[in-house]
């Protein structure tokens, strides 16, 4: 982009003192393309990971879903550690560069079709993804603060483009990776995201001189700050705990949704074969389409004097999540239970589901509708909740609360998904998804009461600040 400045004859500026540039700093583009390649690698790998574990490694659907839940939990636990190490020891740049190495190795090791290799690879991938996650966007924000001080709209535009790159990268890789796997096999397929991650590493690393100059602050947290942190966490605890329930449902789209789609759904859509794995790409496509529309709607309502609380938006999101599970349950009801067969696994005889005959399969459009409703729920809960957490946190705790927000995904996958997905191969999908629909109805009701208490506390705090 071209840079612009005020004419030299401006009454507010000396002819010899140019305006600060209004274009994006060069560092942004290194971060943008690096993040784009990294997200392509992550979501591409994740698109085929569930079936790889269930079929190629012989784990079965339930254990594969549990492994997937633990992996996602790890990806959202390590950001807490990554933020701490970057802030106190290494800086954001060197934390990202250093932990990109195990990230790349994880992709390579994943193609070795053994359980020990799988465990090592998932640890490296979770470590690399998690440690870089909280630092890349923060480094970008710092770069704008230093290179383009005071230009908040330009910085906001940069974050919007950054978010767009994540979802476009996710969509492209989710649609392409299953096709690459079908053509060349798993080992070659996993080398593709390894290559993308290598590109991301190089692009990001060479842009160092264009990033913000970092200053490490090792000042310990004071007792007063620690007390305030606990007060804020207590206020947000109920909200965050219920948001973890949403992520438990959302992240099963990478496991049980795929297993259900492969066995129970006709994957021919308008004459085009679309696998249940590729359907994951529908979510980021919908994000790109729906987020601007929803944002526009909120702006229109605000201009008309209609203010909708963030917690009210989130309540609607929880209800939509329950509806999503209802749609999946109904699809399972239409298809009916699958037949089972006995197979020998690790010396033991187990029962596994057999793919339905074509005449009994339900249309893949059912899953497309479920993804659409779930994506709208994601916008109402995830995007709104992140902003709510940011607003509720004192200035000195913004990064800390954002890291805790990411931990809701960790909690949802570790404490809910990991045990609950063990039930998938023991239950009819109608009953399994129906159980989750009922659970989300309960969560929705609970959120209404938690939100009332939270809003009352926030209103009281605003009243005190206004009176001061």
Summed over residues and divided by their number, the pLDDT gives a mean of 85
Strand order of the largest sheet: 1-6
List SSEs in N-to-C order.
HHHHHHHHEEEHHEEEHHH
- What gyration radius follows from the Cα positions, in whole Å? 24 Å
Number of strands: 6
N-end to C-end Cα span: 46 Å
Low-confidence runs (pLDDT<50, min 5 residues)?
Answer: 1-18
Largest sheet: 2 strands, parallel
Shape: globular
Structural class: mainly alpha
CATH class of the largest domain: Mainly Alpha
In the CATH hierarchy, the third-tier topology of the largest domain is known as Growth Hormone, Chain: A
Question: In percent, how helical is the residue content?
Answer: over 70%
CATH superfamily of the largest domain: MFS general substrate transporter like domains
Strand content: under 5%
State the helix count: 13
CATH A-level architecture of the largest domain: Up-down Bundle
**Overall structural domain count:** 2
């Amino acid at each position: 982009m071209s840079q612009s400045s005020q004419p030299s004859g401006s009454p507010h500026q000396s002819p010899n003192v140019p305006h600060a540039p209004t274009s994006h700093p060069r560092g942004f583009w290194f971060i943008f393309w690096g993040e784009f390649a990294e997200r392509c690698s992550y979501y591409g790998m994740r698109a085929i990971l569930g079936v790889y574990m269930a079929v190629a490694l012989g784990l079965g659907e339930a254990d594969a879903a549990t492994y997937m839940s633990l992996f996602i939990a790890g990806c959202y636990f390590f950001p807490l550690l990554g933020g701490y190490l970057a802030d106190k020891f290494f800086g954001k740049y060197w934390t990202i560069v250093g932990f990109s190495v195990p990230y790349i190795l994880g992709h390579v090791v994943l193609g070795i079709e053994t359980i020990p290799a799988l465990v090592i690879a998932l640890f490296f991938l979770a470590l690399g993804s998690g440690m870089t996650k909280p630092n890349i966007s923060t480094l970008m924000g710092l770069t704008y603060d230093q290179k383009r001080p005071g230009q908040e709209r330009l910085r906001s535009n940069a974050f919007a483009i950054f978010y767009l790159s994540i979802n476009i990268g996710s969509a492209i890789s989710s649609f392409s990776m299953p096709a690459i796997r079908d053509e060349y096999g798993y080992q070659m397929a996993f080398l593709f995201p390894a290559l993308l991650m290598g590109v991301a590493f190089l692009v990001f690393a060479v842009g160092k001189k264009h990033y913000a100059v970092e200053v490490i602050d090792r000042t310990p947290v004071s007792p007063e700050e620690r007390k305030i942190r606990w007060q804020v966490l207590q206020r947000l605890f109920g909200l965050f705990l219920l948001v973890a329930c949403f992520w438990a449902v959302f992240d099963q789209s990478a496991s049980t949704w795929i297993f259900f789609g492969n066995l129970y759904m006709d994957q021919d859509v308008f004459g085009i074969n679309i696998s249940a794995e590729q359907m994951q790409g529908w979510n980021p496509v919908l994000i790109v389409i729906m987020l601007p529309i929803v944002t526009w709607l909120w702006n229109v309502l605000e201009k008309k004097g209609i203010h909708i609380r963030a917690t009210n938006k989130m309540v609607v999101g929880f209800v939509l999540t329950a509806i999503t599970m209802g749609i999946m349950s109904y699809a399972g009801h239409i298809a009916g239970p699958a037949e089972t067969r006995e197979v020998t696994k690790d010396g033991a005889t187990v029962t596994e589901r057999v793919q339905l005959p074509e005449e009994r399969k339900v249309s893949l459009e059912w899953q497309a509708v479920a993804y659409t409703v779930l994506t709208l729920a994601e916008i109402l809960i995830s995007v709104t909740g992140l902003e709510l957490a940011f607003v509720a946190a004192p200035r000195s705790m913004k990064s800390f609360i954002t890291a805790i927000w990411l931990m809701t995904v960790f909690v949802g996958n570790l404490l809910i998904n990991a045990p609950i997905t063990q039930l998938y191969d023991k239950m009819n999908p109608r009953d399994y998804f129906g159980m989750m629909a009922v659970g989300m109805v309960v969560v929705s009701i609970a959120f209404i009461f938690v939100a009332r208490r939270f809003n009352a506390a926030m209103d009281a705090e605003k009243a005190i600040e206004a009176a001061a």
